[in-house]
Amino acid sequence: MSAAPLPDGCGAPAGGVSVSAATGTQAVVEGRVTREGVPVGTGYARLLGTGDEFVAEVPLGDDGGFRFFAAPGSWTLRVLAPNGLRAERSVQADNGQVTTVEVAL
Amino acid sequence: MSRSDVLVDADWVEARIGDPGVVLVEVDEDTSAYDKGHIPSAIKIDWKKDLQDPVRRDFVDKTGFENLLSERGISNDDTVVLYGGNNNWFAAYAYWYFRLYGHDKVVLLDGGRKKWELDSRELTKDVPERPRTSYTATEQDASLRALRDEVVAAIGKRNLVDVRSPDEFTGRLLAPAHLPQEQAQRPGHIPTARNVPWSKAANEDGTFRSDDELRSLYQDEAALDFGRDTIAYCRIGERSAHTWFVLHELLGLPNVKNYDGSWTEYGSLVGVPIELGEAR
Question: Which DSSP symbol is given to B179?
Answer without folding.
Answer: S
